[in-house]
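A quick word before the example. In earlier lectures we treated sequence and structure as two separate objects. From today on, think of them as two lines of the same record. Here is Trichome birefringence-like N-terminal domain-containing protein written that way.
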Amino acid sequence: MVSGSFSRRLPARLTPRIVSSPRVSARRKLWVAPRPPSLGDLAAAFCLASLVLVVGCLTYVYVKGYLGSGSLVVGLTGDADACDVFDGRWVPDSSYPLYNSSECPFAERGFNCLANGRNDMDYLKWRWKPWRCDVPKFNVQDVLERLRGKRVVFVGDSMSRTQWESLICMLMTGVQDPNTVYEVNGKTISKTIRFLGVRFQTFNLSIEFFRSVFLVQQSLPPRHGPKRVRTTLKLDKMDDMSRNWFDSDVLIFNSGHWWTPSKLFDMGCYFQVGGALKLGMSIDSAFTIAVNTWASWVETMVDTNRTHVFFRTFEPSHWSGSNEKVCELTQHPLAEAKANDQTEFSEIIVEVVERMKVPVTVLNVTLMGAYRSDAHIGTWSHPSTVTDCSHWCLPGVPDAWNELVFSYLLVKGEFPHGGIKWDKISKPEKVVNRWADRSCAAVFLGAFLQLLLQLCDADRWSKFCVIPYHMAIRLITARMQFLGSPPLMIPMKSTRVPRRNQSTAKRRKDWIILTCVEHRSLLHHLPEAPATKAYSANTW
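And the structure line, produced from the sequence above:
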């Protein structure tokens, strides 16, 4: 049979005739005019897309969230994930210094440049400012409360002692009765004493310093050794005093300034591994072995769940001249970093820490000090006949090191204040925070589609889509709990859910809190509606 189609508006003789079989006609009609998708089809498609997004976000959190510890970069306020606090510049700040060395009984006279005759005070008015974030201002009362009952230990050379004195003077400004702060053995601060400990009696706080310039054991040479060998460094054994270090809450190391030919070979000190002398070993190789010995000791002896371990890199000096014995200070920080920084030592420290199995934070302060040719002791030493372009005046650069250490600890949520524990920022939470704004619109769309399904009474799609979607939401929110101000409440099940699904819903309303732009968090699941402003399905 032949079938044709005619236009009612045109004459039959002017209308083109289409001749085809019924089977061809049926196929062509199906292709030209397909059945329009129903509302349920569209809702199901968007709902499945939203489910894929949620599951993908969950997979990303679990897979990526635990890779790498980020121990080399300390993230503080601002763009924490992209901020290296050790990359920045010194900016003028009239609120500095944080203390007066002359009023601090634990500041060594040799580091008190003002008391030793320095007249200009410009070097005191500088604050370290990272490029991408800010270091919180040191709040002495807050730090003292959070350090109540703690033990802070510094281990290293005279640079470590400088940082130790700096921290004590910073904390002394928050103590009402200075007589409650004392050295535990009644000793006067001296560079030759191997142990110094200051106790803050009111806060049950101990700040201690152990002098260990090499970190490893220094001893007499083996028998029948060359006469030039007077002492040796046992690179595979830690200092005998290391047994007093690990039982602490904060443990800060440094080493490097004594690893020079003048303080080793010229003094008859050579390297030893096991029972064998290593007379031809270079200083860099020996330093690498020593740092690896230290790393093994930390991994086996230190409880890093309690103790926060730091290793500060080499502090630069500003000696000049052909023999590097000229010390000429500037009045302001340099515009470009320029110093004798012993970069190879810092690189060794970073490489060793990267391979460690426990969390250790590297305080990479080398660049910070390279700008400060104005902040060394110079000729304002004690006695004045000694010129010093290596050590720093107090107050000065070591204060910034302490600000970084304790800002890091407090921002990370350590040392709760007044019994209130800060929420620790875990790696998965950082990932979710970073992606929350990007995925919020899609998740909100999923919530809207759930309401749409319920309002339209799409029974078959509700059974297929609502339950898996809520399972994914429950799984994510069970892992991620964020605190925030009252957000927008959207009910995810209404009374229009089909009765056969009410057993799954447990005959109650579920709520999802969306905190997208204002609160910047993920989803918070509550079994009951809280007493905040809520929008029911009828509001839409």
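Notice the following. The two ends are 56 Å apart (CA to CA). We will return to this example when we discuss secondary structure assignment.
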